[in-house]
Write a structure and sequence with these properties.
Layout: H1 21-28, E1 32-36, E2 39-42, H2 44-63, E3 66-68, E4 74-76, H3 77-83, H4 85-88, E5 95-97, E6 103-106, H5 111-121, E7 130-139, E8 154-164, H6 167-187, E9 194-197, E10 208-214, E11 220-224, E12 231-233, E13 252-255, H7 262-269, E14 276-284, E15 290-296, H8 303-310, E16 314-316, E17 341-345, E18 354-360, E19 363-368, H9 370-373, E20 379-380, E21 400-414, E22 425-426, E23 432-433, E24 436-443, H10 444-454, E25 456-457, E26 460-461, E27 472-476, H11 482-497, E28 502-505, H12 511-521, E29 525-529, H13 531-536, E30 540-543, E31 549-550, H14 557-571
Parallel strand pairs: 3-7, 14-18, 15-17, 17-20, 27-28, 27-29
Antiparallel strand pairs: 1-2, 4-6, 5-6, 7-8, 8-24, 9-10, 10-21, 11-12, 11-21, 13-19, 14-15, 14-16, 18-19, 21-24, 22-23, 25-26, 29-30, 30-31
Helix pairs in contact: 1-10, 2-6, 2-10
The protein binds one RNA strand through strand 14, strand 15, helix 12 and helix 13.
RNA sequence: CGAGGUGUAGCGCAGUUUGGUAGCGCGUUUGGUUCGGGACCAAAAGGUCGCAGGUUCAAAUCCUGUCACCUCGACCA
C-alpha cells in the first residue's frame, strides 16, 4: 500500500501520559489510539501486527490438533451460574441486563462456553481428546490499566480448551501445548520468553505455567535460580529459609516507644530483622474479621499463598489508630483477641528466641519462644521468596528476582468446570465419567506490545519480520521526479507481484520526515529509491536493525529483496 | 477503594495566583524556495477553554456540583 493513503498519523512528541516505551512508540507510530481507560482502537499498522501474530498462533494451535471456534462475547449469566463463577468472580466481570431484564455478562474467559459446547457434542470416550480454541475479544474490568496494550480492559486473546479422559492424557497434551507455546514465542521474535510455574488463581486447577518475557517494565515478579534453572512466579514460589535457632532466653517485656516498624525496632534493640517475629494484619473480605500472619522480620507476606492457605479472600487491614481491634505497630502472638485468625510462617519454625510485639502500645517482648510461650502451632509457608534467598530446588542461596510480562499461560484445570456443569461421557467400561480439562491462553495485543518493548531503538519499533505490519518499506526520495517515482513504483509492483507485503512512501516530504516515519513503522527491510541511487544504478537496501546495508544493481533489486525477505522469514520459521 | 494530579486547536503546552472576551511550538491548508535524517519564507484554516449550574457589567480564570483521564498505593503494623 501507499503510505500517502494510510489512515493513521505519526508524530514526533511523546504523549504526556505514556509510561513505557512500547506504549509511546505504538501511539506515536499510529498503531493504537486510546478510546477510554484501557480501551483502544487498533489502526491499520497495529491491526496488521496483531493479524500476523494471530496467524502464527493459528498455525501452531492447528498443528497440535486444535480446532478453531468462536464463542460469544455476551453470555447469559445462567451459564456462569452453572460453574459458580457468576458469584465467585468480583467486579472485574462486566455484568448487565438485556432488554428483558435477564442478567448478562461480557466474557472475560470462556471455560463455561467451552464446556457448554463440548458437553453437547461429545458423549463417548472415543471422541477424546480434543482441543477447541478461539481468537476473540475479552473484556475484563481491571481495577487499573497500564502501559498501552500491556494491561487493558478490552483485548484480543487466543484461548484454547482441551478435554481428556485421564490425567495422563491431559499431561501429555499439556506438554505438547507447552512446546507449541515455545514455538509461538520464538516465531514472533521473542525466543527469550520463559515458562514459569505459577499460581492458578481464579482459573482453578493444580499445575499451571505462565510464559514470561523478562523486562523491567513487567508487572509480575519472577523467581529464578541461575544455579539450577528453577523458576516460578513470585505468587507460587515457596519461601525456604534456614532458621538460626539461637539460644533460649526468658521472656521479657521491654519498653520500645515509637518503634512501629521492624527497622526502628532493630535499631533500638541492636538486633537483626531475622531475630524478630513480624505481624502483618489482614481482614477477611467476607466479614472483616482480623487475620494476622506472623513472619520472620526480614520477610514479607505473599498474599496469594495466604489466601490459598485460608481458602478465602483477604485484604490488608485498614484500621484507624483509635478503634483498631489490634495494637497497631506492636502486634504479637501473645494475648490476641479471640476472633483473630493466626498464621505462623515456616520461617519462624525452630527459632528459640524472637522479639515480637506485646500487644501493648510501646512494648515488645524479647526472648519470645513460640513453642514455650504459645504452644505447638502448625507452620505454613506464606512468605514471599526473597532476593538471594534459598532455592527450593537446589538449596543454594541463589534466588534472583526479576520483573516480567506474562504473555501467555497454560493450566491443568481438572474437573473444575466439567463437574459442576455436568459434562459426562460414556467410558469404555460403560460407566459415566467426567472429563478433565486444560486451558491455554495468549494475549495477542499484549504480545505485540511486549515484542515492541524488547525490540526497538530510540526511533521506533524493530518488528521481527514474522509480525511486521509490512515486510518491505520503499522510501522514495524526490517522488516529484518522474523517473524516481516510476522506478519506485515498478519495484513496488514487482515485489507485490511476488507476494511480498510492501509499503511505498510516495509522499513529497523531506528525507528526514520519511526516514523518521519509516523508523516508527519499524518495517524490517527498507529500500531507498533516490536520484542519487538511480544515477549510481544501484538502490540501497537495509534492515531496520542496521545489521545489513547493501546496494544491489537496479535490475537485481527485486531478486535481492525477495531473497532477503525469505531468508529473514525462514529464521523465524515463517514463509512468504 | 484510598491519595495526589490533569482536562485550553490533531499533538505538546502557556495563560488561572491578581476576572476584561484566548496564545505559543509542532502538525494541517495555499503559494514559493529547498531536497539523503523531522528544511525555509509568506499567507491561512482550526478552540462553545471537559460538562452543568452559580457569582459578576464581564468567567478559561472565582464558587458549587459532575464527568473523564493520568499517576502512586492497595502491603511489611
Amino acid at each position: 500500500m501507499y503510505l500517502s493513503e494510510l489512515v493513521s498519523r505519526r508524530f514526533k512528541e511523546t504523549p504526556a501520559d505514556c509510561q513505557i516505551q512500547s506504549q509511546a512508540l505504538m501511539i506515536r507510530g499510529g498503531y493504537i489510539k486510546a478510546v477510554g481507560n484501557g480501551i483502544y482502537t487498533l489502526l491499520t499498522p497495529g491491526k496488521r501486527v496483531i493479524r500476523k501474530i494471530e496467524n502464527i498462533v493459528r498455525e501452531e494451535m492447528d498443528r497440535i490438533g486444535g480446532q478453531e471456534v468462536l464463542f460469544p462475547v455476551a453470555m447469559p449469566a445462567s451459564l456462569w451460574r452453572e460453574s459458580g463463577r457468576y458469584e465467585s468472580i468480583g467486579s472485574e466481570m462486566l455484568r448487565f441486563k438485556d432488554r428483558s431484564g435477564s442478567d448478562m455478562v461480557l466474557g472475560m474467559t470462556h471455560e463455561e462456553a467451552a464446556v457448554h459446547l463440548a458437553r453437547d457434542v461429545v458423549d463417548s470416550y472415543t471422541q477424546f481428546p480434543f482441543m477447541i480454541y478461539q481468537i476473540q475479544t475479552k473484556f475484563r474490568d481491571e481495577p487499573r490499566t497500564r502501559g498501552g496494550l500491556i494491561r487493558v480492559r478490552e483485548f484480543t486473546m487466543k484461548d484454547g480448551y482441551s478435554f481428556h479422559t485421564s490425567q495422563e492424557d491431559l499431561e501429555a497434551y499439556y506438554a505438547r501445548c507447552y512446546e507449541a507455546y515455545n514455538r509461538i514465542f520464538a516465531r514472533v521474535g521473542i525466543p527469550q520468553v520463559v515458562a514459569v510455574a505459577s499460581d492458578s488463581g481464579m482459573m482453578g486447577g493444580k499445575v499451571s505455567h505462565e510464559y514470561m518475557l523478562l523486562t523491567d517494565v513487567g508487572e509480575d515478579t519472577i523467581v529464578l535460580c541461575p544455579e539450577c534453572g528453577y523458576r516460578a512466579n513470585m505468587e507460587a514460589a515457596p519461601s525456604v529459609t534456614q532458621n538460626e535457632p539461637g539460644e533460649e532466653q526468658p521472656l521479657q517485656k521491654v519498653h520500645t516507644p515509637g518503634t512501629k516498624t521492624i527497622e526502628e525496632l532493630c535499631a533500638l534493640l541492636h538486633i537483626t530483622p531475622e531475630q524478630t517475629c513480624k505481624a502483618v494484619m489482614y481482614q477477611r473480605n467476607a466479614d472483616d474479621t482480623p487475620v494476622v500472619a506472623f513472619v520472620r522480620g526480614d520477610l514479607d507476606v505473599n498474599e496469594t499463598k495466604l489466601r490459598n492457605h485460608l481458602g478465602c479472600e483477604v485484604h490488608p487491614a485498614v484500621y484507624d489508630e483509635e478503634n483498631a481491634p489490634l495494637v497497631l505497630g506492636f502486634c504479637g502472638p501473645m494475648g490476641l483477641p479471640q476472633n483473630v485468625t493466626v498464621v505462623f510462617d515456616s520461617s519462624l519454625q525452630g527459632i528459640e528466641c524472637l522479639t515480637t510485639g506485646a500487644n501493648e502500645k510501646d512494648y515488645h517482648y524479647t526472648g519470645f519462644n513460640i513453642r514455650r510461650d504459645v504452644g505447638e502451632v502448625s507452620y505454613v509457608d506464606v512468605a514471599k521468596a526473597k532476593q538471594g534467598g534459598v532455592c527450593p530446588e537446589c538449596g543454594r542461596h541463589s534466588l534472583d528476582l526479576k520483573r516480567g510480562i506474562e504473555v501467555g499461560n497454560i493450566f491443568q484445570l481438572g474437573d473444575k468446570y466439567t463437574k459442576p456443569m455436568n459434562m459426562r461421557y460414556l467410558a469404555q467400561d460403560g460407566s459415566l465419567q467426567t472429563p478433565i480439562m486444560g486451558c491455554y491462553g495468549i494475549g495477542l495485543g499484549r504480545l505485540a506490545a511486549s515484542v515492541c518493548e524488547v525490540s526497538r531503538d530510540d526511533y521506533g519499533p524493530i518488528w521481527p519480520i514474522s509480525i511486521a505490519p509490512w515486510q518491505v518499506h520503499i522510501c522514495v526520495l524526490r517522488a516529484d521526479q518522474t523517473e524516481v517515482a516510476q522506478a519506485a513504483k515498478a519495484l513496488y509492483e514487482e515485489l507485490e507481484g511476488r507476494g511480498i507485503e510492501v509499503i511505498l512512501d510516495d509522499r513529497a516530504v523531506s528525507a528526514g520526515v520519511m526516514f523518521s516515519d519509516a523508523d516508527l513503522l519499524g518495517v524490517p527491510v527498507r529500500v531507498v529509491v533516490s536520484p542519487r541511487a538511480l544515477k549510481n544504478g544501484a538502490l540501497e537496501v537495509s534492515l531496520r536493525d542496521k545489521s545489513l546495508q547493501e546496494k544491489p544493481a537496479v535490475a537485481e533489486v527485486a531478486d535481492f529483496v525477495e531473497k532477503l525477505v525469505r531468508d529473514e522469514l525462514a529464521k523465524l520459521d515463517c514463509r512468504l
